[in-house]
Input
Amino acid sequence: MKKTTKLKTWLAALLLAPVFGAALSAQPLPDRKDILEVMIKTNDYFMAKWPDVGKTIITNKERPSNIWTRGVYYEGLMALHQIYPLAKYHQYALDWADFHQWGFRGGNTTRDADNYCASQTYIDLYKMNPQPERLTNTKINMDMLVHTPQLDDWSWIDAIQMGMPVLAEMGVLYNDSRYWDKMHGMYMFTRNEHGDNGLWNPEDGLWWRDADFDPPYKEPNGEDCYWSRGNGWVVAALVRVLKTLPEDVKYRKQYIADLKAMCKALIPIQREDGFWNVSLHDPTHFGGKETSGTALFVYGMAYGINTGILDRKTYLPVMLKAWNAMVTEAIHDNGFIGYLQSTGKEPKDGQPVTYDKQPDFEDYGLGCFLLAASEMYRLTE
Output
């Protein structure tokens, strides 16, 4: 990022902080009943639209329903189920896992994190009823990762969210730190070695989506390209791993530091309406409201406030502004979620992003929103 532009951005943030801070700090916390109501409404819309859990997903081609987009949805559904444990939520997830025989697209020796994202829900269901066959495929796949030397599988930052929480959970379930060691090695390789010098930019506190976007690649305004949802995936991964790892695991310090740095970097680039743009450092490049990245940032900030990792006075106004923007401007009366960027890897993909546009996949956006809402619900406790 250009030094002069960064300096102007931060100075503007500092000058405006007292004004906005005073106004935003007056925002009341949302009522828990309202949070649960919007979670139920958005989820009911999706379950009614997709009653057959095994139905393939057809966009530009046909895909099985255990791909990453649906896996992220079920992460959100299980978060809703923890708050509001309805039998129909559990059964919907269980039917999905049974249909796919608790397995993955690509088989149980896949190195593609998008494929084994489904394990996050398989593990949640296993913990509710620990039948060994529920984790057979997951264990075979994760053991393959642990016992092979490669650390470079997660060459795009979305993969951190798809895969990292699975290894974190396996270490707990089997009391085996080798899963955590492998997870950390893969995370740090993505952070520090992919591309020219890693996909993490400590100067800006944000991540390039993959090696195609690290310098010298620039956005039209000359800034580095930081894709909103891509950075949101990293935030979500860090939250889900920190929720899982025991307090005495040495890697926690790294993940907490990275989460704090990312959340700090998000404050001065939040839009006035509360959302974040798809291009975090170039609001003119397909700028506008976008729900999935915003939801993932809310998830991270709410978790940070709930656990004391983030300063409540600093982050609560930012998070509330984003939450209120989503529920008042993105959620349709029938539960459909608007302003959701379709799948892709950069700001230009899946455009235009509008209130009414149907994205190519609806499932992952809902999953992101339900994760955010689940932490908002806990915040009001």
Notes: The longest helix spans residues 3-24.
